Amino acid sequence: MGITSFYFLCFFAGMLIIYYILPKRLQWAFLLLCSIVYYLITDSAVLILYPIFSVAVCYIGIRVISSTENESKKKAALIAVIAVNIGILVILKYVNFGINSINGIAKFMGHNGNVFKRFKFLAPLGVSFYTFSLLGYVVDVYYGIAGVQMNPLKLALYGMYFPAVISGPILKYRECGEQFFEPHRFDYNKVTKGMQRMLWGFFKKLVIAERLDVIVDTVYGKYSSYPGVYIWIATFFYAFQLYTDFSGCMDIVLGMSESLGLTLPENFKTPFFAKSISEYWRRWHITLGVWMKDYVFYPILRSGFFTRLNKSWKKKFGKKRGKQFTTFVAMFILWFSVGIWHGGAWKYVIGSGLLHWFYIVMEELLESPCARAMEKLHINAESKIINGIRIIRTFFLVCIGDLFFRSKNVPSAIAMLKLAVTTWNPHILWNGAILELGLNIYELAIVILSLLILLIVSLQQQKGSVRDMVAARPLPLRWSIWYALLFAVILFGCYGPEYSAAEFIYQGF
């Protein structure tokens, strides 16, 4: 049952009504029941055993950790919980990554490329999201920065809350866990604002992302026939498709939760206005970045090996450079982890991981020389023009990573980059060739107009909440805005009896 389907909307509407009719003490139990039902009707029913098992392992782990003062037992319990959950994640998502890598190396060396056969596993919905949310909670309990949830069913709701496992966000129990079990009275403003946000999410997904997918799929599906500017157009469009798809899902999920009286963490903050790759990742998939820093990057830097490495390199390269080089090595592990989280293939490791590590390393190494150069040339480093150039540069670098992310594999990505830079065909921008990529002139006009609306809203978001700005307008104007958006989705959304909206891109993670 896709989140954009009519059946899902009926499911949510019925759930919302019953949720507020029920006695407040039963609301959390009802949400757990709805989450279980959603799993059962969306995935193969047997796959629900995976999240249930993960919840059970984490519950046993936190009970052991909280019931003993023996540090060795606490650490053993924590390691066991991490090993079991990461082990399941590796088996479901990354065994074939290792097999493919070994087979690829063997083939490159002239041997049989089928050293090992691939396995076929069915992964449950949102396995990466619920695994990270649960593991983060267990680690927080171990360090005493989160309370212990003694009710296993309440822990199950936190781990299996179905809107969050669709495409995130990754939750932190200490920030939002307890609100799942609190009573929530019907609040007209919260319900309507939540539905307004859901509507904006549907607009981004159904009106923009689904149309952009047509052009992207055409070019990437047969890139040898579409060299040069075709590839750049498709790649730029894919960046917007990925953003409207993923952030559209977040708007729907956060809007649903707001209607239920729940506040989940934001996952996006106008990322295409970032002036550097570091800033981009503070604005894009925010909860993943925070999770990786808290539970991967900082523990690595605090480890004994990196502490010794830092001391050694400070003596060898100086205090500043030694610390910087140590951080770069830890960042390599961090970005490899970010890349492989997105999927068991080298295109993800490079496109969403190591390429961004390289960008950030170069940004840090070149920051001082560039600042000195601009000072000598009497250039205002914070002028609107310079910041505009930084935004364009960052977007372009992100698009290169997206090209790897979207391509079939790494060789295909490299071949596409070669075709993109060796073929000069700007005439396709005005000779009508773009209209042969799957969208007619009317569909293309809808896309361009919708992207302009997205840009205007994003600019307003830089100043504050757009919903609050609309709410401050006179009644006729604000309802005209929301009805216009509703009819835009109804009239221009890609849906219908024979149409099934493509899976949200991040749902597979």
What does this structure look like?
- With 509 residues, the protein is mostly helical.
- Helices cover 71% and strands 0% of the residues.
- It has helices at 6-21, 27-42, 49-67, 71-93, 95-108, 127-142, 152-160, 162-167, 173-177, 188-221, 229-259, 277-283, 286-302, 304-317, 319-341, 346-376, 384-406, 410-422, 441-461, 466-471, 475-492.
- The model is unreliable at 496-503 (pLDDT under 50).
Notable features of this structure?
509 residues; single chain; 71% helix; globular; 21 helices; mainly alpha
N-to-C span: 17 Å
Strand content: under 5%
Gyration radius, to the nearest Å?
24 Å
Written as H for each helix and E for each strand, in order along the chain, the element string is: HHHHHHHHHHHHHHHHHHHHH
Question: Which structural class do the helices and strands define?
Answer: mainly alpha
Number of helices: 21
Shape call: globular
Q: Detail the poorly predicted runs.
A: 496-503
**Number of DSSP-assigned strands:** 0
Mean pLDDT across all amino acids: 89
Short characterization:
This protein is mainly α and 509 residues long. Helix content is 71%, strand content 0%.
Q: What's the topology here?
A:
Elements: H1 6-21, H2 27-42, H3 49-67, H4 71-93, H5 95-108, H6 127-142, H7 152-160, H8 162-167, H9 173-177, H10 188-221, H11 229-259, H12 277-283, H13 286-302, H14 304-317, H15 319-341, H16 346-376, H17 384-406, H18 410-422, H19 441-461, H20 466-471, H21 475-492
